[in-house]
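Morning run. Coffee first, then this:
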Amino acid sequence: MAGSYTKKEFSVGPEEQTLLKDSNGTRIVPAKGTEPVRLSPGWEGTGRPDDELNFKGVTMDQADLELNPPKDRLNIVFCIMVLHGIGVLMPWNMFITAKNYFVNYKLSEEYTGIQSNYATNFLAYLGFAAQVPNLLFNWLNVFMQFGGNLTTRIVWGIVIQVLIFVCTVILAMIDSSGWPGVFFWITMISVIILNTANGIYQNSVFGMVAKLPTKYTGAVILGSNISGTFTAIINFIAQYMAPNPRTAAIYYFITALFVLLACFDTYFALPINRFYRYREFLHQKGINKRQLENSTRDKHNTPPYWKIFKQCFPQCFNTFFVFFVTLSLFPSVQSDVERSNPNFIVPSDYYSTIMCFLTFNVTALIGSSIASLVQWPSKKYLIIPVVLRILYIPLFLLCNYKPNGISRVLPVYINNDWVYFLIAVTMGISSGYFSSLSMMYCPRMVDSQYMATAGMFGAASLITGIFTGILFSMVMPILVANISFELS
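And here it is:
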């Protein structure tokens, strides 16, 4: 054995006695100035810092994931994110598409026996009741993180929405003809609570998906665009199969319950998926690495919100502006564009349904699908086509747009239904495509540990665009009623 040794009487534990004594029973110790020979109790027990320990805090499963990176087999995680995209816009689409149930049935003069302004102003009230809390809590959730971590916020957001839809189904079953005012305000309060929970849920979903590759953010946007088409189809099927509006509404709102419960179940199924666990592990690993690097500078765990916002602001603006232009025109302006040619292939009775709702939802869906395959232009130049979309506003006003109760002064310069259809198609595709791109780019503007926060900023910008677009759409009837000019 290397080194010089002396003998000393043994007076330590039995394990070391057995291993460190000679045949005469005396302890072997190194000579002065040399290291004693001892057995380490184990690598984890040496007291070394975490970053010096091999595989410290890494389970066998995580080690296996890192050695054998899994793929998203059958695109299961992608489909789950599409489902959550459907879920985040389900409340808004459900109540907007159910306009006939509220306006022409529950609040109608034929049902209640009295004339009131509840039905007349229903959509205006609904828009404010839905979007104001959604807007408020989307922004507050970025900074205050109501309900703790992402899982808590997503779970409680879905649970509250399920309870509100249960109450909505019960209200559909009850005869409310004797108290239309009470029914109206119960509905408005339900919408406020529903969209408060949905704002937190929606924001948290974008925070969750920001940890995954960019195409999964596109999957959520894709689902959001599918949501409108899905809701319209369910509403049509419910009306066709049900014998009366009451039964149709029950079938219709119960469908929303099944969708939200599917979102609830699939969220808890995500940790079972190896690909999702792998991406979560990589994300957490990146966070731990940067926290270690910045431990001497960052004394608190609070994210630098201003720094994050400045970095992702270009994409937040792109998201905001895409939805601002889109919601300025859809559905308020588009649904009031009338057929110009009486011999056009689409009958007058179905013109708004096909040329507005179906056309926009299908084309927006196509645009989102393209964004999952092609990402162009780059993050730097995306703002150019996004800003150019402002031209759709005058284009739609120059079509045969005739809002109810308004005497149009502005001449109709685009009176060809096929030209209007082309404008509507390109507007829908560009809305779905550019909104998906901006939301996919947004988390990639910041460091990995801030991706979830950047995703939340993007979601809040999305809701802000929707809200301001809805407000601006109220200006459109005023414009066509007061502006008159002739094109030379």
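The mean pLDDT is 81. Good start to the day.
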